[in-house]
UniProtKB/TrEMBL annotation:
Keyword hit for Nucleotide-binding: yes
SMART domains: AAA
Family: Belongs to the ABC transporter superfamily.
Any Pfam family: ABC_tran
InterPro entries: AAA+_ATPase, ABC_osmolyte_uptake_ATP-bind, ABC_transporter-like_ATP-bd, ABC_transporter-like_CS, CBS_dom_sf, Gly-betaine_transp_ATP-bd, P-loop_NTPase
One GO-annotated biological process of the protein: glycine betaine transport
Gene source species: Streptomyces violaceoruber
Keywords of this entry: ATP-binding, CBS domain, Nucleotide-binding, Transport
Name by which UniProt lists this protein: Glycine/betaine ABC transporter ATP-binding protein
Length: 374
């Protein structure tokens, strides 16, 4: 937490769970409910299918989505991402496990409570937004507000505000067919935001967009998240998208979560060979931060070198020391010197030869670093 964040953001990033998921299974096939906890539960997918005719699309998954975070679910096609996100609002009925939203048991909800959940609390943004073709942009966005009992003028005013928020001011009266794919996505986003849900669920919404537009939409999500601190669950098969957007990333394989961590943890400390292979080509210096490479400052080091923030990327720090010509950069947090990062160490991160997340002893520890005499 940095001093520059608004108190609002501080509240939202508290360690509260929006979704709380424990030992969740979704098995498709005959006698599906016998699979979790049964003799075949641990079988790999092909053998499970052979033995039971079933597919475990979601397999004993547990996690919390924390208030205010972008929780990314990443994995290859068929790994269970869509099934998992649909289970969250019971668009798909889980086979077993427990599931709560804001502490309320989702599995115990009756139909009207579920409808309420899907409409107002956990709004879903799909790849195909399903806009109403004969309605204008502003009316498409206002659609979600009709069920809330607002007057027509209130709805239009609120919708116009949201249209502007997603960067479509001036296009209020167009119809979906008069918009580009990226613009249609923005309308869908505005429509999901209209009901002011406590969590937004995205299932690969940008997969069909060309790379430039896709990047623009990612920036839009980052900006919305920064401005509103809204909780989001974002599904993607794209690693760079996951790394750009995710506060934390759950990496799925064959229905299970193989690693759950920050982008830095996933790239810097892969849990197994599968994850290692997955992140092999990621430019580490663009994900790992200065905080993972810094060491305590020695006497006399508080004056030299360019200043960088602990959450700056290694790439940014390298640029800073290259520009200044210093052998090291000072790591400053809210005006305070918190450490030093050596150019050589930064380059080791790039080369992959550095151990990330080294926890250096504090300067005042008894066995802490001493002045080195050359
Ligand atoms: N309705 C269904 N019936 C049977 N199998 C399904 C069904 N839906 C999904 N699956 C299977 O579950 C697995 C996970 O699918 P899905 O959740 O769509 O993965 P992803 O979204 O990661 O591509 C796949 O093996 C898929 O074939
Ligand atoms: Mg999918």
């Amino acid at each position: 937490m940095t001093a520059t964040q608004a108190p609002e953001a501080a509240v939202r990033s508290a360690d509260e769970a929006v979704f709380s998921v424990r030992n969740l299974w979704k098995v498709f096939g005959p006698k599906a409910d016998r699979v979790p906890g049964g003799e075949h539960a641990a079988l790999p997918p092909a053998e499970l299918r052979e033995a039971t005719g079933c597919t475990a699309a979601v397999r004993d998954v547990s996690f919390d989505v924390r208030k205010g975070e972008v929780f990314v679910v990443m994995g290859l096609s068929g790994s269970g991402k869509s099934t998992l996100v649909r289970c969250l609002t019971r668009l798909i009925e889980p086979t077993s496990g427990t599931l709560a939203i804001d502490g309320e048991d989702v599995l115990a909800m009756d139909r009207s409570r579920l409808r309420e959940l899907r409409r107002h609390r956990a709004a879903m943004v799909f790849q195909h937004f399903g806009l109403l073709p004969h309605r204008t942009v502003v009316d498409n966005v206002a659609y979600g507000l009709e069920i809330q009992g607002l007057s027509k003028s209130e709805r239009r005013a609120k919708a116009a505000e949201l249209v502007a928020k997603v960067g479509l001011a001036g296009m209020e009266d167009r119809r979906p067919s008069q918009l580009s794919g990226g613009q249609q996505q923005r309308v869908g986003l505005a429509r999901a935001l209209a009901v002011d849900p406590s969590v937004l669920l995205f299932d690969e919404p940008f997969s069909a967009l060309d790379p430039l537009i896709r990047r623009e939409m990612q920036d839009e999500v980052v900006r919305l998240h920064r401005e509103e601190g809204r909780t989001m669950v974002f599904i993607t098969h794209d690693l760079s998208e996951a790394l750009r957007l995710g506060t934390r990333i759950a990496l799925m394989r064959d229905g299970g979560i193989v690693q759950l961590g920050t982008p830095e943890e996933i790239v810097g400390s892969p849990a197994d060979d599968y994850v290692r292979e997955f992140v092999r080509d990621v430019p580490r210096e663009q994900v790992l931060t200065v905080a993972t490479a810094m060491r305590p400052a020695l006497a006399g080091e508080s004056e030299r070198g360019p200043a960088v923030r602990p959450d700056a990327t290694v790439a940014e720090a390298i640029e800073a020391v290259s520009r200044s010509g210093d052998p090291a950069a000072r790591v400053m947090d809210a005006g305070r010197l918190v450490g030093v990062v050596d150019r050589a160490c930064l380059l080791d991160v790039v080369a992959g030869t550095a151990e990330p997340a080294v926890t250096a002893p504090a300067p005042d520890a008894p066995d802490g670093p001493r002045e080195v005499t050359a």
